[in-house]
Fold this protein.
Amino acid sequence: MRSVLLAQGWQLRQRNLDQPLEQEFAKDAGWIATSIPASAHEALIAADRLQDPFIGLNEEGAQWIGECDWLYRCRFELAEELLDAGSIALCCDGLDTIATAWLNGIQIFTSDNMFVPVRTEVRELLQPGANELRILFESAVRIGHQREQIHGEMAVWNGEASRVYVRKAQYHYGWDWGPTLMTLGPWRAVRLEVSDARIVEVECPAIVAPDLQQAIVAVQVQIEDMGDTLIPLGAQHAAHRLIVLMALHGPDGQLVAATSVVVEENSAAHTFLIEAPELWWPNGYGAQPRYTLEVVLERGQERLDQRSYKLGMRRLALIQEPLTNQPGTTFLFQINNTPIFCGGANWIPADSFTSRITPAHYRSLVEQAAHANMVMLRVWGGGIYEDDAFYEACDDLGLLVWQDFMFACGLYPATEWFQQSVRAEAEAQVRRLRHHPSLTIWCGNNEDYQLANSLGRYDITSAPDASSSFPARVIYEELLPAVCAALDPTRPYRRGSPYDGIDANSSIEGDRHAWDVWNWGIAPYQDYPRFVGRFVSEFGMAALPDMATIESFASPEERHPGSRTIEYHNKATDGVRRIASYMADNLRPVADLDGYIYASQFIQAEALASAYRGWRRHWGGPGGYACAGALVWQINDCWPVTSWAIIDYWLRPKAAYYVVRRELATFAIGMARHADGMLAWVVNGSTVEVLALFELRTWTLMGELVGVERAELLLPANQAIELGQYGLGGGGELVCDARLLVDGSVVARASLWPEPFKYLHLPDPMILMDIDGSETIRLRTVRPAKGVLLSAGDGVEWSDNMLDLMPEDEQVITAQGLADRPIAIRWLT
């Protein structure tokens, strides 16, 4: 099969609704040259017709684009010999969103779902030489409003209500972390596929036996043969049979097995058996070897089509069973029979303009997640089914993927036409993604059951009904599970997130979104441990981004706390006041922007540490896995903004990123105040028991040592253990400093400070910094120092940061890329 990419030679222009469409397409003037994939916004920015909506208040001036219709046209040349093929199909991998297409003046399709690729046979319409493809993109805003007027307004959280009637990335309508930018245009590739026969679909689930000693890959190949008319009369039939060649290669590239199968009734099948398979593991639990499946379609000696898949051999289970001494059940993922604590993050699209997210950008973000000791990323249901590059990066780096279907914070319709569109969407995306070993669970939606609960529209005792006040239950409880069962039965499916049945946000069943901090009641972040769930799939604390990121969108006169521009780039409801509230409760006031950024990031770091530390404590071993995961909202941004992200739009980590990395490390220490002392616990995230030394020191703020306690511990594998209560001794404002040593090396640190910090009189800690070579930094301090943050500009990768330094405990940091740059250092004062 030959592919002709139609990426160049495109033009676009705004449609004048008062003029006939044919006349509008035929005009010579007013067109803007572009290449695709690209939205109308991107083309206008590149042509200097639109100011970058990410800068200043420019978003407001970009709203008219989504309210208009836009015309795209592409003129291309086609070689005459290509027309001899049995089939030429026009393939549009993604059209955003309401599209009608014409080829050489003949309408060939309409499409109204951003997530459904379109494939249309066009051979008879093509001509040698010049051809023209035209696509009309109608305003999703207008179409959504028209549908809403017919079917009625539905309840939503975030965005504009008509969005539920349009199968478009919901965050384009505006969210509490993103702008309103109603994109349209070809957002993925457009190409011609030229073939006589092709591989339509390959199903290749890898099933690992319960004892992990065998794996089978049952390959099913579906074929479309368009070349029968080309076989000469009287020719030997055998010479023109379609043959499928299948070869499975091991992670080392060596051939495991190969076969050839004659195509019968447009299909071919074979099952590979692998003895002692090399297993694929999540990040931190083992390696990520992958086998390669090659599938080739031949007729005679001619290769017609081929596919290649990277497969991971891993056994997956979602365990929901009673706990020993607590109510409810677990929500626990097992990989290769090993319970996995899924520390990680929620993922949103990495740009408001989805077509410009490059494979390198995907890779960088996933690498940052892996380096932060994360195990799972949740692809949130208001964005997009991500590009293959995202899932491939997760496969390579061992990041489990929780995959939402694209429904978020709304009561969606379930009319027949809507269900048909959703079915096509789900079938296309499940088929595309099911071979990835990183893909761990399918989930019907984000917070739709929670919204229905809040309105009294969900009753678990009633059957799903498309005419009810919660019509989309038909989609989440019947349509989507049926698609998953038919096309990907090896993975679990969940109706929604959060979901447990009766209570959409239970703390003892299913998964939970813990927004008690920040949202509901604005609880103190120190209370995060109280809001534990069996699996906390959302929680978070917002913070400002790096100064360099603010400089990318705010003019010099706007770079101060409370400026119109900085507040405009905070989309959260009461976001400015909530950040100010948490800062006022915990820290002394600051007036300068540098101080304000540091203070907000300090609060975010402390909050997330409190959450991860308190919830990982409940990873209690067999019968006691009372919390089996915590996914922070969110890892990334889609534009430069103040948000809950721990890595900003320009891939600059916030201070919380480093704290999360420590809290999710293999070994971690937790402490909490209790009565006149403190409680301590330790997590061993490795799969073997470990002999360790626990050391606890108590200091005054002036750096005087009050007491030291040590204990040898045998840490059981893959769980947390309680160490009991310790006395602080001496009274007053004391700091507890804990270290865990294995084979004489410090593998974890933690500290417990008196709070609120604003009441403390912190003396100069007298930090000493030595640079050993070009990239090694040695830090020492005379007195306890809180929140020590190092910075040296872009391009420096810190092994650790946002530190608590204690006397007599040198910390060694590597700074890859530092060279001779000066280092700025600040701490809580």
